Amino acid sequence: MGESFISAREVAAGVRAGEWTARHVADEHLAAVAERDGEIHAFLHVDPDAVRAAADRIDAAVAAGDDPGPLAGVPVALKDNLCTRGVPTTCASRILEGWRPPYDATVVERLVAAGAVVVGKTNLDEFAMGSSTENSAFGPTRNPLDPSRVPGGSSGGSAAAVAAGFAPLALGSDTGGSIRQPAALCGVVGLKPTYGRVSRHGLVAFASSLDQIGPFTRSVADAALALDVIGGHDPLDATSSPSPQPDHLAAVDSGVDGLRVGVLSEMLDMDGVAPEVVARVREAAEALAAAGAEVVEVSVPAVIYGLSAYYLIAPAEASSNLARFDGVRYGLRVDAPTTNEMMVATRTRGFGPEVKRRIMLGTYALSAGYYDAFYGQAQRVRTLIARDFAAAYERVDVLLSPTSPTTAFAFGDKTADPLTMYLNDVCTIPSNLSGDPAISVPFGTGGDDLPVGVQVMGPALAETDLLRTAAVLEGAAP
Amino acid sequence: MTAPTAPTTIDSDEVFTVEVGGTTFELVCGLEVHAELATATKMFSGAPNRFGDEPNTNVDPVTLGLPGTLPVVNERAIELAIRFGLAVGAEIRPSVFARKNYFYPDMPKDFQISQYDQPIVVDGSIELPGGHVVGLERAHLEEDTGKSTHVGGDGRITGAEYSLVDYNRAGVPLLEIVSRPHVRTPEQARQYVAELRAVLVAAGVSDGKMEEGSLRVDANVSVRPVGTDALGTRCEIKNLNSLRSLGRAIEYEARRQADLIAVGERVEQQTRHWDEDSGRTSKMRSKEEADDYRYFPEPDLLPVTPDPAWIDAIGAALPPMPAARRQAVADAAGVVLPDETVALIVERGQDSQALDAITAGADAARVLVHVSQNLAGEGGASVAPDRLAALIALETSGALTATQAKAVLAEMVGSDATPEEIAAAKGFEAMDTGALEAMVDEVIAAHPDEWETFRTGDDKARGKLTGFFVGQVMRASRGQADGKAVTDLLRRRSGA
To answer: How many domains are contained in chain A?
Structure first.
């Protein structure tokens, strides 16, 4: 299985140089999937023939003297809420079972244009609602590092695919931590770019003002390369940032000498953050100081309200975004005597309990007479959080915190009480509310020998600072 | 959707009233007009905006609301909304799209993207040809829904055997134009919609075709006792597919509400459906049954903040609107507005023809008559103003009678010949006075009884018989006599 653990950059370099073929790389990764995904269940859909055919096209290009691009022959796994033309896209929901989009998401187009080979579609919590991938309608994904534990979520399948060596690169989506938390729990790198840095066109929306697509990789440099490929303005997404992208990959190795790093004090003091996680964050701060960074402790007071604001805004938007799944045009339809009854029956059978819970929460939060007290108030908190972050970024360049309060937990541990599960995202949610970028990088382990992720946050479009900080931590990790 | 909060200022005394049981009620009405914009593509996607195509052919993933699709604002639709706003003297404001959430099969996303509390156009007005001014509260952009056909039952979704949906219309850009409650008679309502349509067409904002659904009207109708100021409870009337329906429905609804109040009942706030065949409105739903639309700002779109320089450029390129064009014709012709002939000429788009003929020196009164009556038919508008002026010069000089001029003008439509050539070909020449007098005398002699009545009768009888004698002389002269000269001769002969 050795070769299936090499980095995306190495795969591409080898394919471009003719050292090995994309077909060989694809076969290696397909073999790994065949060997172990029965247990892990990272994928909801893999079509080996299509994977080999795509790899053959890359090899043909190389043979013809063409450069397939910076991701030449790199196997990528896609979270199954990213639309792929003609390939099932389910969002791990019964309501979309069998639906094949007639178009590719912008990120998929860009990956393929850069030479990547799509391996398959990965498992997730239904419509990206969850933190353990236990909410998938098609069964959970297991953590490759300890199959008795969850991989985190909602992008658990993508995190597990990268951790298990099924692909050196996977894409996920992050609405409240859904890239960073599973990256932390599976011991890989997970980047949530600035809101608007990566086009959302073709991402099935959960909460439109919070959703952002980003990469899972086994190295920080691969994350930078992936962002270089998928980022940048897209006219099909009105919220996409028009500002040009820097060369992220080129900045990765520039070190942290003189960089001002703030340890975010509120996130070390939060209830439920495990002592060994706090210890790793403090060690990470020391490692950065040793590498030349100025490290201080910084307070961002409003972050403690993040979770409450998030659980009004995200369900409110979701209640509207998920209205279209009504049985009229595509996906599941449960027949009933009248149109209205058909819609009710379809949604009753098609959605799982967590999705229903959030639709109800969101519908309530937007109702006449409650709007201002709930949705309106949550938006004011959101403004406050963004303001507090902005104030902190006048003093420091990046902030440091835990990604997840704990290491990977066991199946069923947090399913009984939704609030316990929601608390998993307490450190990641604030960046979604402010729209700022954040990255999780593995840094040592907890008491149970499972990985701990350290989160590096920064102001809008400061991905290069995040990546070079994460690269230093990657090198200094115990 | 919008409460009539503004004061009901009006500048005309004309008010439609209903008297029931000794109380006189007056009409207060506001209109909501949905105009489809004349864009090439849809409000939020590149699918074609075209009427009459095969069902479900003008669709793309955005139109169908497929998962993962995102709306992108059509800049042309913004420009057209600004054009309309400037055409009605309104303010152009930064605007925000919101989501209006409700489930219906013809709405692909089960929400409609519509501007809600921050519309793009605020506070304009429209002056009707009759002189009445109707205030505009706002106009906002939104996307149209698809079109449902319910098969079986009574044509509504409830009780239908099955339903068909055509999404060609889904996503077509709409401008919803909300008037203040300044409409006080059914006739004003008709004039308002006609004038609004003229403005939309003149500004290139919409094709204004009511028959294709490009222009759809809802009326908010209430009544109150004459002499009171508070607005009564209103009902919104839907399914008004023609100007005729609009007037009839408003009148019916005002009477229905007055009848209710007169017997001590309350008017319930309702949405009501107009049935053209029965001539009645019927309840669709009450306010309590209305959906909670759960409006919130559309997170997939940024606020619309048009550059002031762009707005200025759009305003500078705007053609003159009907009210200004009526004024221009009236000024040139020395007519005081309101004037039906002037309104008609502008409505038909023949005002430049009339203005240019007047500028070329033609008698203004004759220009208005010829353009409004004799050039109303097919091809009439294409008669060059200088040719019309040349014809009128012949008429003014006495070379042609009014009747002859009309005949020549009819030939000029679709012909390059000069008025003189046509007149000559027709053998028209001015009758000399002696010949005309002889002809009048012959006619008098042939109808002694009528002549006696004409001579001795009252004004009414004289008026009637003037027409008779002029007609006889016209027949005898085969249309070459000048009617005005004949009338003068008759008066002289009778000794009046």
So the answer is: 3
pLDDT of residue B432: 72
Does the CB of B71 have a partner CB in chain A at under 8 Å?
yes
Which tens digits make up the pLDDT trace of A107-122?
A: 999 999 999 999 999 9
CB-nearest partner of B294 from A237, A324, A366:
A366
Nearest Cα to B485, choosing from B417, B416, B431?
B431
Tell me the residue type at A477: A
Distance (Å) from the alpha carbon of A470 to chain B's nearest alpha carbon: 31
Q: Give the ranges where B334-401 is alpha helix by DSSP (H).
A: 340-347, 351-359, 364-369, 385-396
Q: Do B68 and A202 touch (CB under 8 A)?
A: yes
Please list the ranges in chain B whose pLDDT falls under 70. 1-13, 430-431, 496
Give residue B144's Cα distance to chain centre: 23
What pLDDT was estimated at residue B431? 67
Is residue B423 within 8 Å of residue B404, measured between CB atoms?
yes
Residues A172, A159 contacting (CB under 8 angstroms) = yes
Cβ neighbour number for residue A266 with a 10 Å cutoff? 19
ipTM of the complex: 0.96
- A36 with A123, same domain: the answer is yes
Closest-CA distance, B305 to chain A, in angstroms, reads 14
Nearest to A320 among B108, B111, B292 (CB): B111
Under CATH, which number does the domain B433-494 receive? Answer: 1.10.10.410
Which pLDDT band holds residue A4 (cuts at 50, 70, 90)?
low
Closest CA to A433 of A456, A460, A408, A406: A460
Token pair, residue A415, equals 């399913």
Among the partner residues A82, A209, A236, nearest to B299 by beta-carbon distance: A209
In the numeric block, which tokens belong to residue B487?
């009338």
Amino acid at A443: F
> What is the pLDDT, as a whole number, of residue B13?
65
A405, A342: one domain: no
What pLDDT is recorded for position B430?
A: 63
Domain that holds residue A336: 309-372
Whether the CB-CB separation of A162 and A218 falls below 8 Å is answered with: yes
Tokens of B437: 């007098």
If one counts every other C-beta atom within 10 angstroms of the C-beta of residue A109, the result is: 17
Q: Among A91, A109, A79, A106, which Cα is nearest to A201's?
A: A106
Kindly state whether residues A240 and A345 are assigned to the same domain. no
Considering only alpha carbons, which residue of chain A is nearest residue B100?
Answer: A320
Q: What is chain A's mean pLDDT, rounded?
A: 96
Looking at per-residue pLDDT, the higher value among B437 and A175 belongs to A175
Whole-number pLDDT of residue A79: 98
Q: Extract the runs of DSSP E, i.e. beta strands, from B170-309.
A: 173-179, 215-225, 235-240, 270-275, 280-286, 296-297
What six digits make up the tokens of B184? 């006080």
- Cα separation, A465 vs A191, whole angstroms: 13
Please check whether residues A328 and A386 belong to one and the same domain.
no
Q: Where are the domains of chain B?
A: 17-314, 322-425, 433-494
For the packed helices B483-494 and B459-477, what is the interaxial angle rounded to 10 degrees? Answer: 130
Shared domain for A441 and A469, answered yes or no, is yes
- Tens-digit pLDDT profile for residues A405-456: 999 999 999 988 888 889 999 999 999 999 999 999 999 999 899 999 999 9
Residue B8: the pLDDT is 36
CATH number for the domain including A284? 3.90.1300.10
Q: Is B227 helix (H, G, I), strand (E, B) or coil?
A: coil
Tell how strand A398-402 and strand A260-264 pair up: parallel
Residue B341: CB atoms within 10 A of its CB come to 18
Please indicate, yes or no, whether residues A149 and A119 belong to a single structural domain of this protein: yes
A320 contacts B67? CB cut-off 8 A: no
Residues A177 and A81 in one domain: yes
pLDDT digits (tens, 9 = 90+) for A344-368: 999 999 999 999 999 999 999 999 9
| Tokens 């759960």 belong to residue | B294
Question: Is A148 an annotated catalytic residue?
Answer: no
